[in-house]
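FAQ: What does the model actually see?

It sees only this:
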Amino acid sequence: MTMQPRRWLGLALVIVFLPGNAPLLRMFVELPISDTSQIRLVVLLFITGLLLLLFPTRAEVAERVRARAGDDDE
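And it is asked to produce this:
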């Protein structure tokens, strides 16, 4: 089973915007996160990455529901 592009994006967001990486981001790139009031953006992007990485897609949920409905009939 391969990872979907959505999960790759989530993984990239988690790695890049890990809250502990904020000082590294400030050191390498002059970003809007250099102001401490913008650290919320880093946390928001980190949480977005977690959601993309961990939560199933609608198709996966629908497949699980159909599989369970099929199991009940047997």
